[in-house]
Amino acid sequence: SPRDSEPVEVLDMAETGGVWGVRGPASWVNTYYQLEVTVFNPWTLCTEVSIAADPYSRSLSANGEHTHILDLSAPEHKPQAWDSLGTTECPKPPLEAFTDIAVYELHVRDFSAL
Fold it and tell me: What CA–CA distance (Å, rounded) separates 30 from 32?
């Protein structure tokens, strides 16, 4: 539960090609985690430890402080007719003009800057 104050387990992550990660068993699905990061803060000129949710999270706890591990392919996480979207039984509506599209972009670096 994300309300637990102490971690059940602390794992070291490994860096591969600039990406930090850890692999775990399927039993981690529907559990929560946080990252502990040690960084140099240029404003305080100190090394600081922060606890945060994963900036690449697809799902968060209700307060946004913990990353939720979920299986996006599980039926309970899909909207109705998701698997048939774009087929003859559930066609996509036509796009009449590209000006009808709203695209938003946010870079993790900009979003998570101090």
Answer: 7
List pLDDT tens digits, range 53-94. Answer: 998 888 999 888 999 999 988 998 888 888 888 888 888 888
| Helices (H) then strands (E): counts for the chain | 1, 6
Side-chain-side CA neighbours of 57 within 13 Å: the count stands at: 19
Residues 31 and 27: their CA atoms lie apart, in Å, by 8
Q: 68-96 b/e with 16+ CB inside 10 Å = b?
A: bbeeeeeeeeeeeeeeeeeeeeeeeeeee
Residue 88 has what pLDDT? Answer: 87
